[in-house]
Amino acid sequence: MFAATMADGPPRPLPVDARPDEFSAARALGHLSRFATEPRPIGSAASARTRDYLVERLRAEGFGVQVQRAVGASSGAGLATFGRVENVVATLPGSDPTGTIMLAAHYDSAAMGPGASDDGAAVAAILETARALRERGPLRNDLVLLLSDGEEDGVLGAEAFVREHPLGRAKGVLLNFEARGAGGPTLMFETTRNNARLVSAFADAAPRPHGDSSMVELYRMLPNNTDFTPLSEAGFRGMNFAWIQRGSHYHTATDSIGNLDRGSLQHQGATMLALTRTLGNTDLTDLDGQGDATYFRLPGAMVTYPGALVPVLTVLSVLAFGGLVAAVRKQRLASLPRMLIAAVSAVLPLLLAAVLAQVLWSVLAGVRPDYDTMGGLLHRPVPYRAAVAALAVLALSLWYVPLRRRLGPAALAVGALAWPTGLGVLLTWAAPGAAFLCTLPALACALGGLGAVLLPRGRFAALLLGLVVPGLLLPAWAQAAFDGMGLALAGVPALALALFGLTLLPLAELVLPERRAALAVPSALALAVALAVTGMTAETYDQTRPRRTHLAYVMNADSGTAHWVSGDADPGSWTRRYVSGHDQGGLPPGYARNLRWTGPAQPMRAAEPSVQIVSRDGDLLRLRVNTGRGARSVTLRFDHPITEASAAVPGSRPARVAVDGTRPKTWPGEVRFRGLPASGASISVRVPGARRLTAIAETTGLTTVPGFVPPPRDLVPSTREDGDLTAVTRTYNLR
């Protein structure tokens, strides 16, 4: 989104005294400051205070408000996760409803930080939107606000909502808001299927709409989920939104109000308010059908077209490419065999660019292991991103320069264009919403090439016009890939940049004489190295841009011994105060998972788990689980895989999940209960052949551990969920 973002990024935030019927980021920040100043994970006191504030504010705006208390559940490979959730559900009847509009966001945060962006900003935006909606009278359609709990631990609140709450089965139109960073425009990155009319409403109503349908296709292929996932599976149609820039703050202590981009909050809220007003007054029965639409952002405008046009554009790009091949051959600028050799060999720079980018990341992570701890989402990534672009130029030069004299520039330019054309055909079949990334550049370049061949006097202008479309789309997509995936997957944006480079070859031939082309290889290599060195110099740490570390305290209540543990590859000086070696032999059974360092610790009195085996019926274990005061969660690890689990707390219905697979690098079966109430939980597990169970009581924070010294201000806990914890274990024999 480089060109689009530069042209029309997030808007100016509106002040507190903005018009009452407008969304004001300043007013939303007033709400955010009431609850996003500390972590509020599921089951915490901060979470309860946030819940109460939300209930109070929504009732003051005239909504009917209910707190849904239930047990949410989710499953993964060898894992069942449960949690006691408290969803805030607010309703406002419509004047003449044709259906329901639902705004959704989660009010819990990751345990590592205050979650100002993820997802406090969206919660505050919903409160401000609720206020602004009342200024113009009631909507036509019913409005439901779902402020869910337990999203960070496996979309537990949304799962419980669709399973137990009547409104969870009411269907309707869903607008879900998330964040994976601390700024940038709000992107519409996921939709339900048959989205054409929803996309049309989004493009028409949202101020400065951002996002594109390639994100929809990509997200459908990934295992990631948000609250949008269970709600859409329950029958809601809708759209999912998030901002993804400045991702180094994601799930850390620096996801704070101070680091939140106010313009991003304004864009999110203005989008939320505009869509709610539009859809809230629309006949929702008219939103069905018409398939999926293609949509993408250009500077100042959102382009949309129906899915039926995708194969038409693909056919046109193939025909235009075929016409270019015929024209080049007729003008004797290149022979068919040479163009074919060029086309086949053009895969080399694409693959090489991706490989070089991943090699760069491996080198950087080897020299600076803290980069790996950050998942490639660095504070100052621009020099490294530029280095990846230079490596893409290097890959192209290593292919182009040697073949230029042998095959000729025309053969190489035409052969290179075979790749966006062919990839467009492939995407039209496999991921139609992403086909525009290749078919439109291929079509534009082929037409520009035809113009250059048939109108020699206008050759430069024709080629330049042909490059406008790829110049707007491919670098923009590379930037979005950098924002969303980070440098750890730098090969993906490098591939997009190399593909863009292939479209530039005809113009490069005009502006880069042959005697200078040979300088491209050493120049690109030198530039990539210089940029990488610049990146290492620029990526320094302070309290606003800290480094990360993983550290936990583990005490074995059976043996009375305790250890510090860390998953860092190369712990820094502060972490090495606690860990000094790699011996994991003293850790409790089944505890170690992706741990690299350990060190002795002083035992202490702390909340510990208690597991009572209520009954055993074949492979089915019925357990009563509790922890001492202060522990927020309990984890049960079994020495055999589990196939099914259920959990209940007093006053709730049991939640049940099926489980497949095994947990890697630890005991194969695991059950978690987040937000465990003081009364404990009843847990049933089907675990064939189990002989042992290790229970782990988990308390957030290390400040009560003897000898603990707080980290320096430029160091924060990593995003690993088992870090910054006091864990007390007890092992039980099941036979």
Automatic annotation (TrEMBL):
Keywords: Membrane, Transmembrane, Transmembrane helix
Domain Peptidase M28: 87-275
Pfam families according to UniProt: Peptidase_M28
Matches recorded under InterPro entries: M28_fam (IPR045175), Peptidase_M28 (IPR007484)
Xref: Gene3D superfamilies: Zn peptidases
Entry's transmembrane regions: 308-328, 340-364, 384-403, 410-428, 434-455, 460-478, 484-505, 517-538
PANTHER family hit by this protein: METALLOPEPTIDASE M28 FAMILY MEMBER, PEPTIDASE M28 DOMAIN-CONTAINING PROTEIN
Protein name: M28 family peptidase
